[in-house]
Write a structure and sequence with these properties.
InterPro entries: GntR_C, TF_FadR/GntR_C, Tscrpt_reg_HTH_GntR, WH-like_DNA-bd_sf, WH_DNA-bd_sf. By secondary structure, this protein is mostly helical. The protein has helices spanning 6-27, 39-46, 50-63, 81-101, 108-126, 130-146, 151-169, 175-194, 197-206, 209-219; strands spanning 36-37, 66-69, 73-76.
Length: 221
């Protein structure tokens, strides 16, 4: 197989870097649903070429975070109420399957790492750092997902997790939601430690929906 030239690798790296920056900006609400992503503005902000920007748009479209509309440009993806319900239905199916596969009772070092992450999540929430709270929350759940032992299941769940990440952002400004999320995490950890799979699956699935309800309230859906 022919190797990529250093110039091609450099171009790929630039696309990846821009894609990651835009993905994070969308997830963290810096770009809102239905907002246009304008090539000229992105060129000024990131110093990226037109080719790099358009390649990043292709990747973001594949992730389900933007829509490329002929003659209308690129907008941040918005979901109808029906699409939201279908997304969360799929996430619940996948989350249940992951939860059914995580080894129980969990190893002490696994439990310790989850408790460390949850403590960091609460600390970030209490300082009002929404972006750090979101990152730690993703790390917490990703650790659990990986423990299922099926990388294809995890990859599929990650796709739906990414698509719904901007929805989760709407709940992070609510201190009650953050505290409840922290307590849910503790209940998950306790169930993993005890080997209570029924309780674990129940908590994992119920944990998904407050963010969706917050999104509906904010957007009057």
């Amino acid at each position: 197989m022919p190797r990529k030239s250093s110039e091609n690798r450099s171009g790929d790296d630039k696309v990846t870097a821009l894609c990651n920056a835009l993905r994070e900006a969308i997830i963290f609400g810096r770009y809102r649903p239905r907002e246009h992503l304008v090539e000229e503005e992105l060129n000024e902000r990131f110093g990226a070429t037109r080719h790099t920007i358009r390649s990043a748009f292709v990747e973001l479209d594949r992730m389900g975070l933007v829509e490329r509309r002929p003659n209308k440009g690129v907008i941040v993806r918005d979901f109808s109420i029906g699409e939201l319900e279908e997304l969360y239905e799929m996430r619940e199916i996948l989350q249940r399957e992951v939860a059914a596969r995580v080894p129980m009772p969990a190893a002490p070092e696994f439990i310790a790492e989850l408790r460390r992450l949850n403590a960091a999540y609460l600390a970030a929430a209490e300082t009002g750092d929404k972006e750090e709270s979101s990152r730690i929350n993703t790390d917490f759940h990703s650790l659990i997902h990986a423990a299922s032992g099926n990388r294809f299941l995890v990859e599929t769940l990650d796709q739906f997790w990414l698509r719904t990440s901007p929805i989760h952002w709407f709940a992070l400004g609510d201190s009650n939601h953050l505290r409840n999320s922290y307590e849910d995490h503790n209940r998950m950890i306790d169930a993993l430690e005890r080997g209570d799979r029924e309780r674990f699956i129940q908590t994992v699935t119920q944990h998904m929906y407050p963010a969706l309800e917050a999104y509906k309230r904010v957007n009057r859906l």
